[in-house]
Amino acid sequence: MSSYHYTSETPSEVKNAKGLHLITQNTPNGQAVQIFLEELKDAYNTSWTTSIIDISTNVQKSDWFLRLDPNGRIPILVDNTQSPPFTVHETSAELFYLLKFADKEDRFGFRDELERNEALQWTFFWHGSGAPYQGQVNHFTRVAPERIPYAVERFRNETLRVFGVLEIQLSGKYSGEPKEYLAGKGKGKYSVADIKTWPWVKNWEKSGFTQEEVKAFPHLLKWIDRIAERPAVQRGIGEAYAKKTI
Fold it and tell me: What are the GST C-terminal domain coordinates in residue numbering (predicted)?
């Protein structure tokens, strides 16, 4: 990476990284890119290095980090194969960057432009609606200094609503054909849209939703289990990403 990105505080494992380098933490957003890299490893033997931080220490607000991502959020993907090296922030943008440059056969994307756009739609849907809503549920029910019933109720209801939108898509309620994955013709195809969405939705219980509440989404629950069976998915949320390295 060109020198203007670096300071004396930049960790050496970031400064000296070669190839793809991921700065992450084992949160839903981090897990999405971790999972995709693990899938690419199985598909193409893609390699990368990883730095794991602890966002509770606010390291992501330090100057060296903000030079890579002015928004101060994980994950960050640095592609040192580009000249000069290229930095990507925002989980969904990282997924589509990897799709473009590392998934040459579109195993996790689509060649058909309409299917490709469908994958964009569902990725953007979760990026712009699902993740913010569920994230606010987690905040107001678990870490807010005081309980604000209106905020809790609003974001719980919105999260259940977007779960219901996913259920509509997967159940084929209006298309007439149930789908196994969010995007693609027929039953759909496992893609970046699923990879973006799954790490959040799988945590419905941790977010405080009850089995009674989610039983209204049977196709969504089967989709959660279907994706969880993939070896790369299990590695992507696993112990390798659990311990801080910098």
Answer: 112-246
